[in-house]
Amino acid sequence: MRTQRRITRLQTAVLSFALLVMVTAEAWGQVSISTLRASVESSNLELVTLQGIVHLTRPHSRQLGGTCGATAFTLVDDSGSIEVTVRRVGRLLQPLRDGDRIHVTAQVHVFRNNVQLPLLVCLDATEIQHLPS
């Protein structure tokens, strides 16, 4: 009886660890901007990792749906572009320049209108790595 309990506990622990590894791998998997935009309905508040080219932008005036936040740049990859905010600019190890290739991990924020349709999609960067040109 005790042997069966130990085996069951071991199986449960192994399955739990495997599930944790799969979820972590999916959360840190790199996606394209078009894939992110296509899955926006289920992406709110998720962490995503993207790679692309920085295009610095000026602060936007109020637009339909508002703006994404303070210091923004546009990230561009082969499939599209998206606005990214950096809330703690002082924590950047290297300043961002127009044309930099970066790897960014960010939290997705989907803002909706009064009938719950996605109106604005913003990324809030949590980590930025510069890549070699």
- CATH architectural category of the largest domain: Beta Barrel
- Our count of helices gives 2
Helix- and strand-based class?
A: alpha+beta
Q: Name the CATH homologous superfamily of the largest domain.
A: Nucleic acid-binding proteins
Report the radius of gyration as a whole number of Å.
19 Å
In quaternary terms, these chains amount to single chain
Notes on the protein architecture:
- The chain is α+β, with helices and mostly antiparallel strands.
- The chain folds into two domains: 1-28; 31-130, OB fold (Dihydrolipoamide Acetyltransferase, E2P) (Beta Barrel).
- It is built from two helices and five strands.
- It has helices at residues 2-28, 33-38, and strands at residues 47-56, 71-77, 80-86, 101-112, 118-130.
- The chain has a five-stranded mixed beta barrel with strand order 1-2-3-5-4.
- Strand 4 (101-112) and strand 5 form a beta hairpin.
- Residues 17-27 have low confidence and may be disordered.
How would the blueprint of this fold be written?
Blueprint lengths: L1 H27 L4 H6 L8 E10 L14 E7 L2 E7 L14 E12 L5 E13 L3
Parallel strand pairs: 3-5
Antiparallel strand pairs: 1-2, 1-4, 2-3, 4-5
